[in-house]
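We give the entry.
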Amino acid sequence: MREASRFMEANKEQTIRIVSKALRLPQADAANQVNNLDYSMNFARARVMHDYETLGEFALEIGRVKSVPPATTIIRPEFIKKIDPTLAAGW
């Protein structure tokens, strides 16, 4: 996963073509995803919890969920820690 993340960052145009073909998206839509999503594999606790809380609040607001489960029942940092402990800082 780390190697793929590095490849995506270093080869944006090729990544856009691959994503476009694999997901059957126009290249402009694939470019939007590739350029606006972070594929760095950063699983630091502060970042993950911020994203989890933000998305949980949004899901509540739009009625997609009735409650947000405790993060500890969903987030499993031990898998990333086995790959590279520096990617899971704070857990």
Notes: The two ends are 20 Å apart (CA to CA).
